[in-house]
Amino acid sequence: MLAGPGILLLFILFILPAIAVFAIAATDWQLGAKSFSFVGLRNFELLWQDADFWHSMINTLAFVSVCVPVTVGLGLIVALLIEAESGFRAFYRAVHFLPFMATMAAAAIAWESLLHPTIGLLNQILRSFGVQGTNWLRDENTVLPVLGAIFVWKNLGYAMLLFLAGLKTIPSDLYDAAEVDGADGPLSRLATVTLPLLGPIAMFALVVVALRAFEVFDIIKVLTQGGPGKASEMLLYTLYVESFEYLRTGYGAAVSVVFLLIVIGLTLLQVFVLDKRVHYQ
C-alpha cells in the first residue's frame, strides 16, 4: 500500500507513455490530425532507408564516442588533482561544478557570443596572435567538435563530483597496506588502489554521461538547428523536427523507439556486464 502511489505514478508517467510511443510508431498519425491508419512496421522501414536518419545516428554515435570518455577522463583527473591539493578545495570544486548548475540554454547563448565569427572573444584572441578564426558554428568541419567541447565543459563538473565522492570512500589503511607491499609511488598507488576501487563510480559516470550525450538537444536547438547541412543534427533533434516541425508524429515515434532501445541497451550493459567487472564482493 505504501508503494502503491509511487507505482501508480511510474505507470502513468513512464510506462503508459512508452506503450503509447510504440502504438503511435505503428500508425501514420500526423500531429493534430483527427484520424490515422495502422501501417505496421512501415515507419521503421522508412527509417532504415532514410539517409538523413543514418546521418543523424552517425553524428550521435561519433559525438558520444568522443565526449563520454573525454568528460569522464577529465573528471577523474580534475578530482585527483583537487584531492591531492589541500588548499582551496572548496573553491576548485565550485569552479568546476558551476557550469553543470547553469541551464544549457543560457550557457549556449553565452557560447554563441564567444564563438561569433567577427566580435566573438575566441576569434579576437586568435587574431591577436595572427591566426584567422572561422565561423565555428557554421563550418561543417568545426561545428560538431565545438558542440562536443561545450558538452564536456557542461558535464565535467558532474563527473568530477562523482569521483570526488568515490575518493572519500577509499579507506586510508589500504594505501598504507599498498605502501608496505611496495606500491610506494603515487602512480603505483593509483593503479593498485585508487582506480580499482573507483570502478563502480567510473561505471556509473560512464553510463550517466553517455545517456546525457545521447539526449543532447538544447545546444543544437539554440546554436545550430542541426546545420550547417545537417552536420550537427543528432537523434533527439531529428525526433523533434520530424514530430513537431514536419508533424510526422508516427515517424517521430519510430525515432523515439530507436532512442528507447539505445537507453535499454545501455541499462542492460550496466546491469549484466559492467556491474560484474567493477564490484568485488
UniProtKB/TrEMBL annotation:
Keyword DNA-binding in record: no
- The answer to whether the entry has keyword Transmembrane helix is yes
The segment(s) forming the ABC transmembrane type-1 domain are 57-270
What membrane topology does the UniProt entry give? Multi-pass membrane protein
Its transmembrane ranges are 7-26, 61-82, 94-111, 143-165, 195-214, 251-274
Annotated localization:
Cell membrane
Major location category of this protein? membrane
Keywords in alphabetical order, please.
Answer: Cell membrane, Membrane, Transmembrane, Transmembrane helix, Transport
Top-rank taxon, per record: Bacteria
Q: What is the designated name of this protein?
A: Sugar ABC transporter permease
The species is: Bradyrhizobium aeschynomenes
